[in-house]
Amino acid sequence: MNANADLRRGSALPSLLMALAIVIAAWIVAGTALQIANARSTITVTGSARRQIRSDLVTWRASFAAQSPSLQQSYAELASANARVRSYLHGKGVPDSMLSIGAIQTVTFRARLANGMETGAVSAYRLSQTVEVRSTDVDGITMLARQATELIQQGIELESYPPEYLYTKLPEMKVEMLADATRDARSRAEEMARNAGARIGRLRGARMGVFQITPAFSTQISDYGINDTSSLLKDITAVVSVSFELR
């Protein structure tokens, strides 16, 4: 009897293992199918918004210098240039509140022998300063930057740099543009779902892309975003990636 029972138990074991394997396989297949179904129930789209703005703040910089064999003479010439630069800017309607003058920078030049080797003797001192004008009068300062070379005619060694243009209301605009880009994404998702015979449901997730601030009508893009300061007119582009539930 015991031998027969052991035999029956031994013959039943493979059947039990087979049944268990079938259950596990069914569970794996069901789980995979559920994951696929969940993946298929979501649609992810990209929405964008673009606006063109005109900069409302400008910064213009220039440098002026004086050079002489004597340090005292270089300083006197630089002080004279400083006074004439200030007078010129005041005459162009730039008040002191919009004007700043940087610290004096000094470069010492050493005399050289005929073979090009430098000696310890000083041949000249070059002193320079920077001037910066920051204003909301964008058009006026833009014109000033073009005309400032008139100072060269007064004997001032001047180097003028291109103006930098900024838009001070950018933080508020970014919030509005993200909302616009999200609405654009929803519109795209609705169109895609409608073409597939479905409807979109609740928002599953959203990811904000980088902002692109480029010269107007530019096609430049960068994975890290662009923040152009060289152009008066700019295009601002916002991008979002949004996932919706499908029904």
TrEMBL record:
Gene3D superfamilies: Protein of unknown function (DUF541), domain 2. One of its GO terms (biological process) is DNA damage response. The keyword Membrane applies. Pfam families: SIMPL. The keyword Transmembrane helix applies. Keywords: Membrane, Transmembrane, Transmembrane helix. The chain crosses the membrane at residues 12-34. This is SIMPL domain-containing protein.
